[in-house]
Amino acid sequence: MSTVTERQAQDSLELIDVELIGDSTDCVLRMHLGASKRNDIDAKTLITISHLEMLLAEDLGADDDDAVRGMYRQAYRLLELANRPTSESTTFAAFFYLRDVANLTRRLLWVYAGKAGTDVR
Questions:
Q1: Mean pLDDT of 55-81
Q2: Is pTM, for the whole model, over 0.90?
């Protein structure tokens, strides 16, 4: 018999679309700088940030796992407005910021999927 808290935690784990985030991060990580337009980079950055923020809202065990806690610190550092690319940033800087966000999102997705008992492609 599960408790209300356990059911709420399980319901929370089911709210995130693992396949969607996996596909989204795969798409970003397959991008090439020379073949990417700045407006595409900026659009994918907003989407990837939203995925990262969703994962950060979940209890992924940061209290008990130093590696997960480190990923949370990296994520909060990346998400600080001062660290985000602006319209004056080079395409190069925007592209690699996007890749950093996608890589970290992907790593947190693996943690999330492990807790939810689902697979990440």
A1: 92
A2: no
